[in-house]
Amino acid sequence: MLIAKSPDIRPSEITDEAVYNGRRRFLMAASVATASLFLTDVSAADSSPDLPKLPPARRSPVSTSERPTTYRDITHYNNYYEFATDKYSPATLAASLVTRPWTVGVDGAVRRPRTYDIDELLKMNPLEERIYRHRCVEAWSMVIPWVGFPLNRLIRQLEPTGRAKFVKFETLYDPKEMPGQRSDILHWPYVEGLRMDEAMHPLTILAVGLYGRVLPNQDGAPVRLVVPWKYGFKSIKSIVRISFVEKQPLTTWVRAVPSEYGFYSNVNPHDDHTLWSQARERRIGDFFKRPTLMFNGYGDQVAQLYRGMDLNRYF
Ligand code: MTE
Predict the structure, then answer these.
(1) pLDDT for 104-122, tens place per residue?
(2) Tens-digit pLDDT profile for residues 177-211
(3) HSE on the CB side for 304, CA within 13 Å?
(4) Which atom number of ligand 1 is nearest to the Cα of residue 238?
(5) What architecture (CATH level 2) is domain 11-306?
(6) How far, in Å, from the CA of 226 to the mean position of ligand 1?
(7) Rounded to the nearest whole angstrom, what is the distance from the C-alpha of residue 21 to the centroid of ligand 1?
(8) CB atoms < 10 A from the CB of 25, how many?
(9) CB 166 within 8 A of CB 196
(10) Domain limits, the chain
(11) Could you give the 3-state DSSP secondary structure of residue 168?
(12) pTM value surpassing 0.70
């Protein structure tokens, strides 16, 4: 996320338009065929046979019908600063992360603080498949078939008290397994946070898998947050602690560059980052950029959370 914007090359500078349009028609026909395959069973796609399969998950009606990004791209183009600052090496470097045994501790303003073993989270019934748009602040996007469950299901078990105004999440801190933590490029452990109503929103999930199998390490194994209307950096990976707190937590990117990263970080095409215009995005696997949608296209479901707030101030 700190890396400077690469220069834009206009497609017309590369491919003759007639050739391009012919190719595009062919690709569109092919993608319609592929999309209908996906509609029958996303989890049967070519995911890594090395990772355990999750029990069959029913597809949530909130899933987008857009074609999922390939498993290869989802698992080989990652932001995971605990391993590397580029997007290609986490796929190999994250192999050093040990995800068993794994626990997630819960503390703070809850009546029933407790520790979850990862096996309990993997058995949260029912697991759902949620196909979500995933929009990174660097103006690229993907469509990811997550497997997980609404965070509000876990929160209800914990019985938060009236003092719980925000939820704070922390990633594992272990510089032996996470070599990026030996550098001070960010403050460790990685911290993220949500306002209580955002955490309780039915679109907010804890993901334990994708494409029907457990999460690959580089995608945040064994459990990560997914908040589809916010920039990808809010979706913290490899969570070990969840705390219910009264004050807005100081999150990793806000701490690093407060002028660029806000606590809310809702996808907003009208509010540019210094390095990246947020008006358009490149869907990984696509040729042309597409317009970015307010709240990443989830405005009907989430806009009311921010009614009356100045979104330029609370970015
Ligand atoms: N969580 C941790 N712990 N460390 C990170 O570096 N990167 C964030 C987010 N969660 C990150 C993280 C950013 S910048 C993005 S865009 C998404 O993870 C990327 O998720 P993906 O690699 O599964 O696409």
Answers:
(1) 999 999 999 999 999 999 9
(2) 999 999 999 999 999 999 999 999 999 999 999 99
(3) 4
(4) 3
(5) Alpha-Beta Complex (3.90)
(6) 10
(7) 35
(8) 10
(9) yes
(10) 11-306
(11) strand
(12) yes
